[in-house]
Amino acid sequence: MVMLRYQFQKIKRLLDIAFFRILFFALIGVILFLAMYGNVKPDKLKLGLFNIAEKTVVSPITVEDKESTEEKRKQELERVKGVYTLKSEYTQNQVDLVASIFDTAIKVNQEIQEELRKPNEDGESSGPKPATSKEVPVADKVKRLKERLTQSVIEELPDEAFIALVSADKGQLTIAKDLTVTAVNNEMSKPIPADEVENSKKKVEEELKFSTLTPGLKRAAILLGRYAVIQNEFYDPQATEEARRRTAETVEPVKILEGQVIVEEGELISHEIYRQLKLAGLLDSQDSKKPLLGLLFLITIILSAIYYYFLERKSQPDQKQTDLLLFGIVFSFSIILMKTVSQFQQFGYEGISFLFPAAMAGMMIKILIDERLAWLTAAVQGICGSIIFNGETTGALNMSAGIYILCAGLAVTLFLKDHSARSKILPAGVFVSFVNFSVIFSLLFLRNTQYSGMEYGLIFIFSAVSGIASAVLAMGLLPFLEASFGILSTMRLIELSNPNHPLLKKILTEAPGTYHHSVMVANMSEAACEAIGANGLLARVGCYYHDIGKTKRPLFFIENQINRDNPHDRLSPGKSAQIIIGHATDGAAMLKKHHMPKEIVDIAEQHHGTSLIKFFYHKAKQAGNVNEADFRYPGPKAQSKEAAIIGIADSVEAAVRSMAQPTPEQIEALVHSIISDKLQDGQLNECDLTLREIKVVEHTLCETLKGIFHSRIEYPTDMTKQKVMDA
Asked: What pLDDT does 329 receive?
């Protein structure tokens, strides 16, 4: 394990160099490519024209069959009939024409009658003769009527019609006019194509034939009605073209669907089938560059997202390289495991993707690194899983597997809220099992898939095994990775908190007052850290060791001076300050010598930051000018929330312990004063504590101290003893 840790340290140092960091990402990309390329590479089948298919072939993709689409479009266009438009104005024109002919006839007859009634040239009346049109020759009347009509009317109508018109009186002509106009209007209101004109004329004729007109006038009305009926429906090329365009747009593209059977086993490969096989990319003549390029683009996007995350991540360079290497190992292992499980698809095991421990990587990354990276890992695993498990489908993506893996990763990340919640790994696995089961059934119901009771039971087993296996693998791999990378795990912290640890025994035997002080600070720090979501266990264990440097000169610290003289009374303020300051650096050196975790060493080194030893500074200042830097701790300032809180709790505990019977108000005022002083001195500037969190820490410390230094109730026996003593 030591050798492995040494190798990982070498790799981490290499990752600090941009070239090797890019090489590391390229290695992850190669693993992804090798895991997924076989799943996206098109199958190359030996399928020749007019050969017999050796097996049933289905389309791996959905592709438009443009040739069939065009053929379908032509067929639909052939069904489009010419568009004919009804010219409604023609009806009115023809009705007006018939009416005007009758009106002209009436007017001509009236003019002739008026001329016959005029007196002769002598001024005498022409006599008692009645003014009738019979005295004017019919030929003259017809002539006068024709003079009022158009040439086309004259040519189309026979003379018998004109004779009948000039021979009838006004009343008869008015009735004939109304009957003819009505008949023409009725028929012309309907569409009359060219081939229906004669039928429409006959309908008008039939309608007028049963009128009560005189035979001559009836014949004239029929002739006028037939003459007036003309074609009123005509071919519209623009409307026809528009109809063809709309029809062409409504034609749905013919597609070869993903999973569609192109040729059955034993079927002859005809020209049409061969063409469809070519469209689906299933012939040897088709190259596979598109899937290759698509996979390369996808891997580039994935690696870019991961690289950007680590580039923008705010952490120390050493920690960033550790996290990058950890992520690479966990993620690569997960992809390799995913590919291994997918190999069982070739044996016909359906739903094998549901057996993959999809939550394992999310668990480990959430605990070892952080939550945001766990979200990203869940998304990337879902994408990769949809490709790697596509053997269960006919397409390039198995969306069910992708959604299943994504949901498992998201569920475990939500469940593991606490960074150090390793005790929750197994419950998280059980929770993921139920989530898996729910997701699988949702997907099956969405697809309306029919399964037997035994198959549903098998799916339930798969989902349970996936969740539990994720937890078991995580619990098995976490100690290995933590030991290999020197990560401070919960188990390691528990081991360090054992009072039988040599360093703790050293504090207890050589500096018992310091040991008691450390335990008190540990209780306070743990409560404050847990209140703001920091690592309470790390704070507790760090407190146990934070003053280990005092064991070098225990009697120079007041908590160990029980019934003893204070040696500082015999030293100069400067010398005393150096001894006090030395306990931080001495403690860090001792912890490093015993190969303690870096987090514990940092707490011992940083819990005082660069604060000023005020008592000895002011004492020295009274004696003359002094350099303030000589009375400050060397630092560094607290870099983590835990170190900052321990520094506050350390100062608060020492200050409250020096008070005689402190009241709650005094405790609150003292805690507030110490925290304000540290803020003003800039001791909390380099950790990521927010003002809101500092307020929570202050409240928690006050509540803890009030519980420790609560006022005792004076019992009667105590009161009696007090009276005796007073006596």
From this structure: 92
* CA gap 544, 575 in Å, rounded: 27
390, 393, 389: which is closest to 337 by C-alpha?
389
Give the E-state strand segments of 587-710 in sequence order.
Answer: none
Alpha helix stretches (DSSP H) within 533-635: 536-545, 573-593, 598-606, 614-623
Report pLDDT for 135: 67
List the structure tokens of 506. 């050293």
pLDDT at 122: 45
**Alpha-carbon gap, residue 500 to 506, rounded angstroms:** 10
Say what the pTM is.
Answer: 0.60
Q: Are strands 84-86 and 233-235 parallel, antiparallel or unpaired?
A: antiparallel
Token code pair at residue 434: 């139920």
Can you tell me the distance from the alpha carbon of 146 to that of 583, in angstroms, rounded to the nearest whole number?
138
pLDDT at 8 (0 to 100): 62
Ranges under pLDDT 50 in the chain:
121-134, 285, 419-420, 712-715, 717-727
Of 469, 456, 423, the residue nearest 351 (C-alpha): 456
Q: Which residues pair with 261 in a beta bridge?
A: 58
HSE of 176, CA atoms in CB hemisphere, 13 A: 31
Give the span between the Cα atoms of 269 and 253, in whole angstroms: 24
Report pLDDT for 332: 94
Exposure b/e, 705-721, CB count within 10 A at least 16 = b = beeebeeeeeeeeeeee
